[in-house]
């Protein structure tokens, strides 16, 4: 196929407009055509205006699994890749499609490493309600995330875990394409999302991958069917590219855990590693972590993996690994004993229930927007974030609440006006839905897509 | 509505990406939104990459008639408009969506003017199998098409007819948008085609408009249903904007007339104005011309208009008007008596039938491509054209042919290689389909969409 591309390039017979036409009419693009398109885009031969028309055609016509795999591989090949083979052992990785209060990476990196599976986690900062994993970790005084590839490898060889920002020129095609999709209403295309996520994962060279595909009102994908489509496609791409990949579909109808904010989530991760975290966060970490151990061949099934992880929490090994991780990256590891050393917001405002009842709904997106308004997240790439700002939810779906009882605590910075705090308070109150009777138990893990795409 | 635009601009709340999302989800854009989009595009605030994504979203989701009207008016307002009200009488105009061998404008401009209806025709050069109307007229020795607006108006006041190129800055939004659509596989969107055609017509300020929407294998639109959609939408836009507009849907399954080429079509127009032209070309000119007289209130129904036009052909008035038109634009009017004064190709090669039979098919697109290969048309804006090159079809659908009898004559320039001529010969032979029995009569005018859009 590569020969075909070269031939077509030499004779100048490929025109991007013909490829757009082909996709627009519903045909699948070939490996050679997708290589031409992505190479041309990164090198400037295919201009933005053709790529945005192509993205819109893909939005409407979709892609086959094979096409999405070829697109992903073309994107991987657009830049550097990291070779982590020098690290002994089966390196585990995970990725979440993003929700509100998703503290799982902070818990899973030390927890899985404590089980003897190396975790070399490359994370981003990203845009969203809170910062990304890097921002959360940087709320720990002194914590450094800008490791070189050599430092990352040394850290993982040394203590089994490191979390760092990307320094290499990984997947430039994705950076360009994502920026373009963001301003052309072509972000929410399942194959483009899958190629974006999987290209970055493949370029970072893990040994296996567990995906957490969020579904529900607080997630990007609202419908279970869409979540399954994305999960199946990403598993198809990963396994098709030789990376053992599975996905859990998990509920994001209410925020995960109780804390939403950067330092607040670090504190919650510490609690969870101590066995004192919110039940839903612990359940999800065990489910994802069990699969990470299973794919790393540490155990033969994910349930056995969960048992190992529970024991590591119970005997303090997991928290000790987090201490090691923090110390190894120049952070103040004493936060694991005294979370009061983390940045703390000047104002703490308790939000109280205005009536009796059972919580039957807690709109995740609305809580996320309120946290964003408090300054915990980034609206643009250049926004600065307040590490201490956020919201702690005292009540979640299923809980009984009496009028006047605290339902949440707002953590607001000194600069936050009382109008802002008042508005956030109202947002929180209206995010809660109460009924006279409790609703049924909320299922957290909604489904699994395994290596066979089933 | 205009206030809404201004307000939105001031507060900076309109984002092109939101408008793309709105269209992508199938909603109709408002007048204010379309004005913002087109103004922004022409002024550079909306970049090409957003406009191409929008064009692709319009391709998939379509537009309501109201939306298409607002888009058209926004495009008209992007540049200058020509005011022809100073010309006394009801100015008639016509537009064809383009086919192979479409000589109607060359016949209709003098013919309708001969009936006392002023014709101020602004034409283009365009890309295609042959040049545009301007190129065809410029094959007459000395003929000048670059008239200023004042010269155009003076010519129409003086002799009732002028055909000129556009000098004013008419519809810059269309120029930009068309160039973008051409390279992003978004040309063949019915609402975008309709807005492109109608914006140029409205900006040129005619009194009424007769559209010739071609349909069939040699036309842009292959299916009758598509042709009706485009015709109804253009009539809706025209009449919605206050320009009385009707459309005929006409067959383009075989080339119109016998000549395909620039000077060859001028010669055919002269023959037709003499009453000696091919029956199908005459029939279509009378049908379109009858409606032009009717919309100009010269007659109360198109059939009465046809009778007037037939009489003007029969008594020589029509040809005399063509003579006047040519002389008034510095051309050699003697061509009307002696078409031998037109440029003539060095080589004329007769193509002969390889078997007996009746012509039941004559692939228009294939003939067009053969004429293009001979150098009669433009592949890019900078291509030069050979005015003498082309093909004359001696046999058309329904004709009986004996083996060895001429079916066509190739007019090729000195520089044409014998390989080229041989290849054109084969293209012509394979464009003809023969059967033992004649097929039924081909209908030329397939339908009408009137001012009410019916």
Q: Can you describe this structure in just a few lines?
A:
Chain A has 454 residues and is α/β, with parallel strands linked by helices. The first copy, chain A, is built from 17 helices and 13 strands. Chain A has helices at residues 2-11, 16-24, 31-43, 48-61, 65-76, 104-114, 133-138, 149-159, 172-182, 190-203, 224-240, 262-273, 279-295, 302-314, 317-328, 364-373, 418-431; strands at residues 92-96, 119-123, 161-165, 208-215, 244-251, 259-261, 347-352, 357-362, 390-393, 400-401, 406-412, 432-435, 445-449.
Q: Topology, please?
A:
The structure is a homodimer of 454-residue chains.
Chain A: H1 2-11, H2 16-24, H3 31-43, H4 48-61, H5 65-76, E1 92-96, H6 104-114, E2 119-123, H7 133-138, H8 149-159, E3 161-165, H9 172-182, H10 190-203, E4 208-215, H11 224-240, E5 244-251, E6 259-261, H12 262-273, H13 279-295, H14 302-314, H15 317-328, E7 347-352, E8 357-362, H16 364-373, E9 390-393, E10 400-401, E11 406-412, H17 418-431, E12 432-435, E13 445-449
Parallel strand pairs in A: 1-4, 2-3, 4-5
Antiparallel strand pairs in A: 5-13, 6-9, 7-11, 8-10, 8-12, 9-11
């Amino acid at each position: 196929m590569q020969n075909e591309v070269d031939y077509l390039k030499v004779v100048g017979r490929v025109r991007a407009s013909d490829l757009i036409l082909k996709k627009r009419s519903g045909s699948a693009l070939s490996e050679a055509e997708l290589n031409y398109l992505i190479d041309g885009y990164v090198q400037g031969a295919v201009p933005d205006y053709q790529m945005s028309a192509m993205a819109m055609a893909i939005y409407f016509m979709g892609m086959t699994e094979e096409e999405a795999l070829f697109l992903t591989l073309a994107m991987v090949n657009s830049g550097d890749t990291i070779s982590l083979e020098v690290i002994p052992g089966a390196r585990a990785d995970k990725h979440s499609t993003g929700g509100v209060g998703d503290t799982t990476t902070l818990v899973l990196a030390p927890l899985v490493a404590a089980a003897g599976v190396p975790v070399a986690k490359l994370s981003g900062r990203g845009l969203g309600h809170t910062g990304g994993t890097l921002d959360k970790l940087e709320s720990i005084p002194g914590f450094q995330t800008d490791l070189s590839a050599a430092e990352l490898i040394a850290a993982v060889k040394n203590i089994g875990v490191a979390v760092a920002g990307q320094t290499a020129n990984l997947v430039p095609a994705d950076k360009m394409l994502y920026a373009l999709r963001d301003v052309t209403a072509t972000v929410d295309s399942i194959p483009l999302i899958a190629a974006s996520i999987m290209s970055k994962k493949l370029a970072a060279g893990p040994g296996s991958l567990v995906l957490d595909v969020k579904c529900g009102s607080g997630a990007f994908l609202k419908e279970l069917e869409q979540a399954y489509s994305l999960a199946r496609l990403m598993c198809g791409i990963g396994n098709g590219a030789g990376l053992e990949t599975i996905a859990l579909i998990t509920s994001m109808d209410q925020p995960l855990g109780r804390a939403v904010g950067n330092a607040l989530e670090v504190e919650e991760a510490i609690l969870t590693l101590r066995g004192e975290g919110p039940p839903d966060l612990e359940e999800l970490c065990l489910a994802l972590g069990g699969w990470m151990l299973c794919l790393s061949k540490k155990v033969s099934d994910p349930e056995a993996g969960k048992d190992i992880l529970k024991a590591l929490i119970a005997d303090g090994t997991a928290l000790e690994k987090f201490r090691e991780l923090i110390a190894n990256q120049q952070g103040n590891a004493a936060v694991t004993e005294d979370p009061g050393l983390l940045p703390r917001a000047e104002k703490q405002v308790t939000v109280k229930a205005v009536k009796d009842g059972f919580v039957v709904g807690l709109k995740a997106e609305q809580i996320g927007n309120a946290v964003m308004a408090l300054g915990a997240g980034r609206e643009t790439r250049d926004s600065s974030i307040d590490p201490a700002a956020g919201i702690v939810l005292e009540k979640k779906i299923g809980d009984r609440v009496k009028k006047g009882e605290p339902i949440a605590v707002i953590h607001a910075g000194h600069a936050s006006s009382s109008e802002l705090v008042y508005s956030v308070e109202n947002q929180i109150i209206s995010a809660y839905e109460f009924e006279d009777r409790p609703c049924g138990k909320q299922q957290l893990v909604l489904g699994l897509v395994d290596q066979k795409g089933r």
